[in-house]
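STRUCTURE:
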């Protein structure tokens, strides 16, 4: 598993070309490398080198594959909860979530709930085991569970 963390980090310097590449990727996330080179009027090796630099700097975190989960009988849940806040409790909860192989996203929030996460499971028993583990091993106060029935990625 790779962990991609956003927030809580220092900014990095990017040059003018890298800034143009980032702008173009934000504008056209589906653009091919050939289209990017054409739009930016740069050589493919220049693009490749700058993309690697942006990856190394932690600006580009990943290139995403989107899976049609329904075709694979995968259920997608978002779970939000509160806990008796302490740094030790937070660390324990985050460690449990990070080690559970089907948790795909964790967000610390400052709203109604302290932590929210998304998980892909193949059946309700798998979800129940995860929730039982969280209830048993942590001090959760309140939990809200929703199944994601439709998702529209705007890329």
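SEQUENCE:
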């Amino acid at each position: 598993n790779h962990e991609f963390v956003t927030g809580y980090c220092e900014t990095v310097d990017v040059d003018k070309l890298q800034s143009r590449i980032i702008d173009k990727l934000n504008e056209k996330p589906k653009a091919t490398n050939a289209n990017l080179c054409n739009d930016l009027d740069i050589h493919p090796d220049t693009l490749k080198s700058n993309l690697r630099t942006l990856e190394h700097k932690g600006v580009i975190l990943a290139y995403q594959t989107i899976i049609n989960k329904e075709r694979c009988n995968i259920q997608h849940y978002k779970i939000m909860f509160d806990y008796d806040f302490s740094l030790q409790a937070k660390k324990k909860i985050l460690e449990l979530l990070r080690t559970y192989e089907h948790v795909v996203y964790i967000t610390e929030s400052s709203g109604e709930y302290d932590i929210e996460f998304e998980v892909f499971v193949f059946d309700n028993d798998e979800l129940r085991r995860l929730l039982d583990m969280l209830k048993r091993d942590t001090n959760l106060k309140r939990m809200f569970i929703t199944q994601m029935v439709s998702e529209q990625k705007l890329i």
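REMARK: The two ends are 23 Å apart (CA to CA).
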